[in-house]
Amino acid sequence: MIAYDTPGVTDQYEYSVKGFSPINERDGDSAIMDYRKEFVVKPGTKVKLSKYDPDETLGHHKGPKLDEKLAKLQSKLDSLQYLMYAERKHALLVVFQAIDAGGKDGTIRHVMSGVNPEGCTVTSFKVPSAEELAHDFLWRIHKAMPVVGDIGIFNRSHYEDVLVARVHNLVPKEVWSARYDEINAFEKLMTENRVTIVKFYLHISKDEQKKRFIERIDDVDKRWKISIADFTERKYWDDYISAYEHAISRCSTSGAPWYIIPANKKWFRNLAVSHILVETLEALKMKFPKPAVDIRDLKWK
Ligand code: AMP
Ligand code: MG
Q1: Residue to probe by mutation, ligand 1, list 135, 142, 164, most atoms within 8 Å of CB
Q2: Which CATH fold would you assign to the domain 33-289?
């Protein structure tokens, strides 16, 4: 039996199996979109990323109306986080993964700008240290999980252990290929212990990556971001895409779904991620706890 009630998006909706639904089925600004339904990867789907358009905007346009929408979502997210912090029944883990220049940092900055830092932790996973490598690959991940009441954001995650580790043969195939099931078991343990998990793959095109790398060279304020590794890793683009397709296909579950976010347009990426976070927290049906004291007994002295 599941110890805690964590409504999974995939229990409630029907999904389009291949990529996003056709553009003419949508109606942009006037539509009440269900972003979770639109971008979730249904468990068991064999993902082919070329079928997902990274330029998708669901008929939305950049401009003041969009800014207003984003501001409203930010404020909703702030209220929901406050409620989660007060209720202390759930934690939320938000995983961001993307190819280099995919926009993880920018998205995190956007999400964080709306919430109280007191109830939020961001963890960036780098090349594992000697100590981390001497443990199982989930050791450092488990330690970084958010406590109830908090939002935990992962900039990269345990998925690196089936992405970079697979692309560069950092461990033998027997080792990385067992990790998909190990990740699913770990995430199930977490979701059964009060952590709601959402995982975002920020989907950009190879051309968009090149454009962003060129921007980093041209813009003096962005030059600090340039790393040689980004340019060498670009050669492995196809291998990374294939590793992402496997990871998303194998590890999108009803309790811990993957969302593929069209991310060529930064503003749309922010809109979609904010919507999904708000929808996810609203589905938890959280309530403020009853006050610890009977307010009728309070007397001013
Ligand atoms: P950045 O996010 O640009 O600061 O880079 C972090 C680097 O750490 C990337 O090159 C990742 O591929 C690498 N990294 C993160 N996690 C792992 C891991 N589990 N194994 C190997 N490399 C990793
Ligand atoms: Mg980088």
Answers
A1: 164
A2: Rossmann fold (3.40.50)
